[in-house]
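Lab notebook page, bench 4
Experiment: in silico fold of construct C2
Operator: M.H.
Input chain length: 530 residues
Purpose: comparison with the prior construct
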Amino acid sequence: MRPMNMKQAILKTRLLLAMAVALSLTATAHAAAPGITGPTFNLIAQTAFLNQPDGSTVYSWGYGCNGAPTGYAPAAITNATCPTMQVPGPTMIVTEGQTVTVNLTNNLPSAAGNTSILFPGFAVTPTGGAVGLLAQEAAPGGTVTYTFIASSPGTHSYYSGTQSDLQVEMGLYGAIIVLPKTVPAACTSGLAASNLTAEAHWGEHDFRLSQAAYDHARSCYDREYLFQFSEMDTNIHRQALAQVSDPARMALCATGAATPGCGLEVPTEPYHPSYFLINGRSMPDDMDPNYALEYPHQPYNGNPHMHPGEQVLIRVIGQGRWQHPFHEHGNHVRILGRDGNLILSASDPNSLAGPLLFTTTTTPGLAFDGIFYWTGRGLNWDAYAHNPASSDANAKLPCAPDANGYNTGVPTAINYYEWCQDHNKPLQVAPFGDVAAGGPATLPDANILTNGAWYSGSPYLGPDATTRATGPNSAFLPSNSQANPAEERGFAFMWHSHNEREITTNNVFPGGMMMMMLVDSREFVIDESN
């Protein structure tokens, strides 16, 4: 991925997103790509209510585990669970070349009729069940089995192939992650190995499912996250609940699902969604931990976190009916592949050809894998507040540029991967901290930029950042700055839908499809165990 341009125009107009902003969240509320391992999966489709930030609960359908799964991944997560119904459905994690078997039992209300699963991109052999329009189906109380070869690495979707306009809307969708069978040697040496050295030095665990997204040396990564985007029209969900609970309909269905009058007649148009979800949750719920008890049927969160210089793999699936233009502030996203198809140059198979996207498109049914990274290059000031005259040892760390201009010689350094061209460069003409006068930036009033408890009061990464930013003459001392975790002083970039309606929850802002990418220097331990 080429050196980032930092989206200069965005940084100038939205300094809140480029300056040091630390969330008042605990260090345990981070995401990963959690799921269950196979290659045999026993799933069940049934009902439950999903919790929303406005206090409402929404009747939904979803896939879940029919008994204990074979295992959970990543292995470093020790409190993983798989309920009998969840939205999205359990993320199924397999390895390229494996024969995958999915046994689906239909425990939906009889009035809902048959259900099924489609596995786009795979050649599926069904066993049992009834013939459906798009897939073999499981009748109420029945089971159907799907078998296929995990033929291509990457991120894939799965979802209901029966009355999909209703059943996918109700929550019957999920993800399959296929890991490459062979990890390229480049992903276990060089800078990739240096990142592991840094993690080990600071006591971090490796929460990746693999070291590479594909069987290709250019697909190495250091951290990964899975995001599934969807929306909900609560009117459809209310009508489905009313009809499956109707005594007359229930009496008809008691004589058999094929009895005339037993089925549902839920209109799915006109479509007016009021909830916009990332991994089944709306902001701010998506920033609570994975497997949090308050979301028994929404176990996966959406709260990415990274250190400067890390290659962050984002796995994204559009699971709803609408296209969701999603903007990852801080840098462009390099697309690696779509639906398990790595995009390579026609003239040079060793080179990637996926586009750099300012806004990624989450087209319904489409999955993509992309790389995001952030280094501080382009800020035009020293993000670590280095000053060789300071009495603070952390303000005098050296920066020795490698061939690309980054400080990568000492992986255990706090400023590992610092952009050395800005080393010791002051922040503003009249500084308030350690950096000497003469800087390129004049910062606006902190009272204008302050965003509640989400603003740390510091434009610096690393230890003592708040102390450096809150001197006796500082304008950066919002009343809430001391409420943030003392050990976390990082940058927060808002990641959100570029459709303004979709960053609301039931028409109330903020909410919906929004999360924060947190960037912290190396001494902050990113714990993705829940």
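Observations: Residues 394 and 463 are 7 Å apart (CA to CA). Helices lie at 8-13, 15-18, 164-170, 190-201, 234-244, 247-254, 446-449, 465-469.
Next step: discuss at group meeting.
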